[in-house]
Amino acid sequence: MKLCRFTHDGVTRIGKVVEDQVIDLGGVAGVTSSMRALLADLDRLRPALDAADAPAYRLADVKLEAPIADPQKFLAIGMNYQAHADEAAVAGIPTPDSQLWFNKQVSCIAGPFDPIEVPKVSDMVDYEAELGFVIGKRSHDIDEADALSVVAGYLVCNDVTARDWQFRSPTYTLGKSFDTHGPIGPWITTRDEVADPQALNLHLSVNGVERQRSSTSDMIYSISAQIAYLSTVMTLEPGDVIATGTPAGVGIASRSFLRDGDVVRVEVDGLGAIENRFVAER
Description:
Elements: E1 2-8, E2 11-18, E3 21-24, H1 35-40, H2 42-51, E4 56-58, E5 63-65, E6 74-78, H3 82-90, E7 100-103, E8 109-110, E9 116-118, E10 125-126, E11 129-135, E12 151-158, E13 161-162, H4 163-166, H5 173-176, E14 182-190, E15 201-206, E16 209-215, H6 223-233, E17 241-243, H7 251-254, E18 263-268, E19 272-280
Parallel strand pairs: 6-17, 8-14, 9-19
Antiparallel strand pairs: 1-2, 1-5, 1-14, 2-3, 3-4, 6-7, 10-13, 11-12, 11-17, 12-14, 15-16, 15-18, 18-19
């Protein structure tokens, strides 16, 4: 199932995408306006969600919003693709000995087709194509063998980064958290529709020119390993968004940063695509 948030006639609702339609799930008992609440109760609600078939809208007639707008956490791992780690090593950045995590503040979240600001204070705005996943069950200290059972679903993410601000802080947080620098979407594809999250192709283009292409099989730390590691430290909550790292080809490697008017498209096979125009901050 592809769960989304969409706006039609000025009202934002929760729906499911079926081919070229969005089916409004607001009439299903127990469904509110909160995707986070829906994910927490997904197992119980699933039969009713599957059965819902009306009202329906043409996908072309709605605006897709960020599929979850209010996660309690937006976490991301750095240097998690081997080719990207090799690329960074050439630039003198060592590969960390353990998983490298940082926060993207949730205020950075943007929709899958929203404009992304190029801040006045940054000359080094970069793209990072990533597979993201969303937690579905409250969990702490999860064994790696059971880790995927707490995932509600998967989505496409662009971990937009102001590199100059990133390097000013060892935590990376400032450079990762400018407003609009967390576009996600276009929907949440539930876990049952993804046979193997470690066998997905992802690619990114800037103005139609491909910059990144890889497979999630190149991850150094699998999604299961990520969940086990994080949940050792903190309780993961339904709706938490986690970005799993970016492959080689980021802009900083070639000193090719994003400017006003650039259009960045990120696609993960089977999960859809997000596409955002970068606009100068006014």
